[in-house]
Every structure is written in C-alpha cells, then in structure tokens.
Predict the 3D structure of the following.
Amino acid sequence: MKKLLFVFIGFFSITVSAPINVLATQEIDPGIRLEGMETDDGTMWWQYAYWDTTGGFPEYIGYIEFNEEVAKFEVGLTENTPENQQAILEMVPNSQVDIIFTKATYSRENQKAFRVHFSEKYMGEDSAYNLRGMNWDKDALAVFAEADQVAEYKSYFENAYPGRVVVHPEEQFNQDPVDWIGHYLAKLPPEPAYGTEEYIIHHFGEDDGTIDWRYQLWSNTENYPDNLGFIQINANQVTWEIGLVENTIAAQQEILKLVPNSVDNIVFMDADYSLNALTEVQENIIQNYLQANEHPQIYALGIMNNRVIVTVAEEVAEEYATQFNEKYGEMVQTEIGLPNQTLEETVLIEADPISHLNTSWRTLFLLGGMAAVGIFLIWQRNHSVANKQTTTGQIIDENYTLSDTEIEGIIKHSIYEPSDDVYQSLLKMLKNKNSIS
Amino acid sequence: MDNKELIDQLALFRKGHEDAFNQIYMTLKIPVYTIAYRITYNKELAEDIVQEIFMKLAQNPPPNTVKKPRAWVFKMTSNLAIDHLRKMKDGVEFTEENLSTIHSTKEFSALQLDVEQAIRRLNEQERQIVALRLNGEMTFKEIAEILNQPLGTILWRYQKAIKEIRKQIEGRSDDT
C-alpha cells in the first residue's frame, strides 16, 4: 500500500502571503518558542513546522504531504509556476532535492471550508450518515466507512462532490500511520533527558558562571555538592546564602570556582547536614513510611532549613519524634500539623514549634521572611499532593518569578486521586462481566 | 511503574493474576485520573473515564506488540476525555459554579490553587498537552503522535501554556 502522510491542516490556520525570499527575513516571533527549532536550518522539516505553528502558509500552497516511500515532500501548488516553486525552494535551500511539486486544485482556505462543511453535514453526532473518520488526501478528503458501505458512499459522494471525496474502508483509518515525527526527530539531536546537564543547557542555556545557572543545574539534577547543606536567595534577590557542612576557605573556594561571575553575591554559612544526606533520609522516610501506606497520621514531609521536617497528627507526634530521633538523630524534626493544610496554614502551624527549637534552628527558621529558593516537598495524605514552595514558605507574589521548572514541578506534584468507590465499582463490573477469572 | 514493569504486569494479568490488575490500577489511577480531570475539570466525568479505561485494560489489554503501554493508556485517557468533554458541551452546559463536578482542592497550597486555576483557563488542547506531559510523563514526540500534530506545534503550545500559567500566577493576564 502506498504510504502517504496525511498532513493535518488545522481549522484555525491563517493563510498569508509569504515574501519571495523569506529566509533572510524570517524570524521567530519572540512570543513563539519553537523549542529546539529556534534556528531555521533551511530544511522543509523546519519550514513545515514553522508554517504549521504560525499558520503562515503561503497562499499558493494547497497541501503538503510526506511520501515515505520516496522520502520526499509533495507540495501541491494552486499555481504550479516556476516562480512559486522557486519561492519555496529559496526558503528551504537544504531540502531542495526532497521536494516534488504538483498541481493542487484547491487552496488551503478552500479545503478548510470544505472540511468544515463536510464535517457539519455528514460527521456530526446526530448525523444519519455512518462515516467513521476523515483525513486529507492531497486535494481530496479521505473518509472512512464500513467495508460493505464503501461502494454506496463512493457513488453518493462522487455524485455530490465529483473528485473531491475518496471513500476507504474503515480498517484503513489511522492504519499504519506514517511516522513523519520519527523522520523529523531523526534529523534533530535527541531531547536531553530530564535531570541531565544537557537538559539544563537546553532549557537555561550554557553555563554562564553565575550562581543562578548553577542552582538550576543542582536543583534540576538533584545533585548537590556533598558538602552543601542549603542554598537560598536572600530577600534582596541578589545575595545567595550557601550553607556548607565544613565551612572552610578551601570548601568555599571549590564553590566559588564553579560560579566565577557571582563571587560577590555569595555569603557562606555553616550547615549541620548536607542536602544529599537529608535527601537520602527523606527518601528513606518516603519508602518506609509513606509508600507503605501504613502511617496515615503522617501528613507532610519536606526538607526545610537544613532538616527533614515531618508533619504528623498531634496525638502521635511524640511517638514519631522518638522513632525518628532514634533512627535519624537530629536530622529529622517532627512537627504537629493537620491533614489538609494550605500553605498559609502550614506556616502558621509551624510557627508554634519554633519555641522549642534550638537557637540556630530558630535563626534559620526566621529566614522564613526571606524569599529563599530551594526545595520543599510536602506529602499530603488524602490526595498524595506534594506541595512545592520556596524553602521558607515564601508565597509567590509580584516580587517573585517562578521558573518554568518550578511551574512544571507544581503541576507534576499537584495530583488528583479518584475516590475508592471507583475501584470497588470497577471490580464489581469486572466480576459481573467475568473478566477476571 | 515504567513501561517495562507495566508490560510485565500486563503479561501476568493476561495469565489470570488478579493481583497484577490491582497493581496496575494502584499505580496508574493517579496519572489517569489527573489527566482526565485536567482535561474535563469534572470530577464525575473523570471518574467515569478512569472506570472506562481500566475496564478496557482488563477486557482488552494492549497486545504484546505495544512497547509503550503507558503511552497507550494515556492516549486512550486523553481521547476519551476529549470525547466526553465534547459530548458534555453539546448537552448540559458546564459552568464553574457547578461545584458538584469540581474536585476538592482544599488540601492544595495557595500556590497550587493559583496554578490549578491558571490551568483551567487554558484551552482544551493546551490542558491536554500539559497534563500528558507533566502528569503522564510523556515525551513531546509521543504527544505529537497522539494528537497527530507536528512536534514543533506541540512544543510551541506547551511553552505557550506554561508561559500563560506564569502570567496568570503573577497577575499579568490580559483578562484579569
């Protein structure tokens, strides 16, 4: 079977005229980020993605398809003239041999309008027509029907729209689709894996010798120097406070060497424990307590102010405090909390236990007023919600800008869980249908 | 549960191990439900979708040839959610005031609530892309395949959505 790519043509594309030599003037609108494609590489792949993203197809293009068998783009032009062909080729100097020009009967606008008309008339929910899907096939609209109805529909549409609608058996709908994305990706460097240095460079640019970049690297890869206890930015948004377990000149120099352009913006402080060690303890608690799901009175868990903080119900606070102290010593601080705390409530509730903390811890806690940046993970029991917030509970306001990574982190960790009834009802349904036996 | 583990569990389930189904449900219920909910923003609908997905999974588990069953599951979830959403729009109008359909977020922090509110203001497709990417942990390539759109378009829409969320949180939205 001849494999063709049916290029998706969006309903909302806007067709505009393109200048003859677009390459020289074609710049990505700063508001449009084609990640990994910022630079026009002169290929049809880039050009197609650009047109599709901006909706700016030249008006003389009727359709574009990728023919996998010959690995060439087929570009249908409503006016298939040497001038129009040349205009396209000048936009894609590195894809000139990959293009076949053909005559297109209809413009994209015309095709879009026809698709809308056809969809409304024959494909609606209440339609009496039994069609199963539609797709583009160059100038024509490919529609899919049950095998025994294909002939009937063919005859009907040929009469209604001569040469404009092709009817296929429904089995062919989306069958063995052409992996044009695969073709495209093969030409691109692979997307760096999350948490790697390459990922940081991809998203935040090359190492510019600043602590801001280094922080992105450390926090995104979750790979901090062994000696580092905490890192946070002061309320002035300029000075970074870095806590070191062994706060020696040599250790400070090691850090400063990594951030030569931020040496004046860093203040070193003493830290009791390394962030890596605290993270390990936190993971340990997640595995041994939270994932086991046998400790419903543990409400929240996080690394904060150089300690692992565990929030538990008041009635079991002493028991857990003893248990954690035996296992992890002073690395873990047990707090009293409520199951459904909001951010503000968390801060309020945690203000009380401060009175029994030692002075150095209290000093760190008071940094809560500062716009510190760091990691904080709260494990909420009812919906397994992990709150992401600044180290000291800073509420994001107009003075604080969230990074993409932070927003992504919040969405990733703000999750929902279906009620238990769903599973019970599912089991009942399966039992009835005798699916599990 | 990564793809390999899911393939193993599905194989066990096909052999009649009920525990494997339980394991699959417990592991996938949150991403499946979160994706469904973030597309529909309707609690009951999202729960119906979860049931439908796992019924399909139980009755017609993906064949061995499916190498990325997670993507397979999330694709079904996303398609079903969009289908349901469109049907719902044709029927009873869904409004934000219709609180019975909205999931409780009382355990969310203020920041999480802001972000959630911003997600709700995205359009249907942006919500779909964001949920598949961040809650389904799918690659952009997989999302592009599911939505039958060029990779560049998906990347652009994703970045636009994140940017819009940030604008909303920082109170810079044009419509606020």
Observations:
- Chain B has eight helices and no strands.
- The radius of gyration of chain B is 17 Å.
- Chain B touches chain A through 59 residues (CB under 8 Å).
- The CA atoms of residues 1 and 28 of chain B lie 8 Å apart.
